[in-house]
Amino acid sequence: MRRITVRFAELNIEFVDRGVGLGQVVGWAERGTLFPIVIFGPEGCGKTAFLKQAAAVLREFGYDVVYVDVSHLDFVAHTDVAEVVKRLVDAVSEVSGTAAQVRLAYLVINIVKDLIRSWGRRKIAVLVDEAFQVIGIERAGLYVKSLLNLIEYPPGDYERIVAIAATSEGLSREEIGRHLWAHLAPMWNMPKEGFRQLYEKLPGHKPPLEEVWRLTGGNPRMLAELYGSGWRTEDVIKRLIDSKYLATDTIRKWRNWLTEAIEDPDRLWGRDAPEDLLRWLVEKNLVIYNMHHREPQFWIDEPPPERDPELGIGRHVAWQTPLHREAVRRALEEVG
Length: 336
Known about the structure:
Elements: E1 5-8, E2 11-14, H1 19-31, E3 37-40, H2 47-60, E4 64-69, E5 74-78, H3 82-93, H4 97-117, E6 123-129, H5 132-135, H6 140-152, E7 160-167, H7 170-177, E8 183-186, H8 192-200, H9 209-216, H10 220-228, H11 233-243, H12 249-253, H13 255-263, H14 275-283, E9 287-289, E10 317-319, H15 322-335
Parallel strand pairs: 3-7, 3-8, 4-6, 6-7
Antiparallel strand pairs: 1-2, 4-5, 9-10
Helix pairs in contact: 1-2, 3-4, 4-6, 6-7, 11-15, 13-15
């Protein structure tokens, strides 16, 4: 299959790895999806690049494909229906900010309806990236229901529909999981061999692969952060502390729990950990709470190991990356 070019660390590179996940996309292309697939996982684990590559794969299978990145007002339309492109361009150019984002999120659903009703398309794929935080967590379930309605109650006949949404927002998973309107599918950071391929595409002198792996746990965005900072790990950690507002009284309040979780994230599981703390950690995208069973069929691409203390992965709870864990450790030191 054709590998697309993606923008990574201010470089144009060919999409690498995720062969297992792309095989799953081929399966969806051959059968369609009975329910929307909602992909969640660590910030920066590569969901956006994966969706864009998936869009290209689905086009090769004869689908009219519409991909929208709601938060960044970006889109890709693999279709010969010129009206689709025009409507998307208008949506991202007429207004700015949240209003444009919300408009784009709901426009894509109407476009799919028109592809079936007005243009008679038989195979359609809709891929929506980072919509839930924009439209509001409380509306995430209803948005997924709208995607399900495209499959179950279409405005006309079709052969197959593939519907996929992706989010880094941990709380939206809870809202969506309350209903049986979607299949929740986690994606983890890159497996080591794929991460090596990405690491090798970065030019210039760089630390040894093993050192970078232990810092990032295979997370592409953290790799890009390290590269962009000249491999100054301290700078990346300080940016995480500042951007996530970690040096606060919240850290001090939950010092004992966080200190234990740094050593083993599963300390937060099954021991009556404070609900406010768990919600804060998920809301800040610091941990993935309630990790799925590790059988491959439940994951997009390859699942993480059952446990990896070095990378901060527990059986039930995992730090999103080792750098996230280290940022919390440093914040604990700063607040005293």
